[in-house]
Amino acid sequence: MNPNGENLVRLTRTPEIDAAPRWSPDGRKIAFESDRDGNPEIYVMDADGENPVRLTREPARDVVPCWSPDGRKIVFASNRDGDLEDLEIYVMNADGENTIRLTRDPAWDGAPSWSPDGTKIAFESDRDGNPEIYVMDADGENPVRLTRDFAKDGAPSWSPDGTKIVFRSNRDGNPEIYVMDASGENPTNLTQHPAEDEVASWSPGQLAVFPKARLLTLWGKIKTTQGDGR
C-alpha cells in the first residue's frame, strides 16, 4: 500500500500463514516466511507477489528473514540444529544456498536485522536470562549486549544511517517502541500509548509502527512517527 495507507493490494493468496515480509534492497523482491508447505520456511517473491520461490527446505522453523544491504544474502532464525523451542541465527545466499550458522548458544536467538553498512547484525536473545538486544559481527563473532533491563526487549531494526536502533520493550509496563543509539545508549520511548505497539520498520526519516492488537489483520493499521516519536 501507499505510505498513507491507501491502495492496499493483496500479494499472497494461500490458506496458510504468510508473515514477516522484508523488501530486498533494490525493491524488486520480498522475502517472507510461510508455512504453506507444512512448516515455516523462507520464501522470496517478486514485489508484485508473483513467482514465489521456496529457499529453505528443513523439517524445522525457518523464520524472520532479513536481506543484507547488498542483496546477496539473507539472515534468518531457525531451530534446525537444536531444541525445537530455541532458535539460532543463520545466513544464506539470496538463492537459498550455502547456509551458515552464526550463533551457538543454548538460549533463544531471533529477529536478526542487518546494519546498513553490512558489518553488523542486531538480534534479540534471552541468553542472559530475559530477552535483550545484542549486536554481533556479520560473521557471528563478537556478540555485544546493548540493553540491560529486566523487561523484554526485542525486534531490533537499524536506522538507514546506522546510528540508531529501534526496538520493542515492555520496560514501562506494556509493549512500546523505543529507539536508542547503536551503542545501546540513550533509549527513548517513542509511542507512549496504552495499547501494545510491537513492530517498527524504518523508512527514510520515519518509522512505521504496528500495534499488536491488529497484527492478525494485515499487520495492523500503520501509523508513522518521526524518529523522535512525533
TrEMBL record:
Pfam families: PD40 (PF07676), Tricorn_N (PF26549). Residues 25-37 have a biased composition (Basic and acidic residues). Residues 18-37 are annotated as: Disordered. InterPro entries: 6-blade_b-propeller_TolB-like, WD40. It comes from the Eukaryota. Belongs to the TolB family. This is Tol-Pal system protein TolB. It comes from Geodia barretti (Barrett's horny sponge). The lineage of its organism: Eukaryota, Metazoa, Porifera, Demospongiae, Heteroscleromorpha.
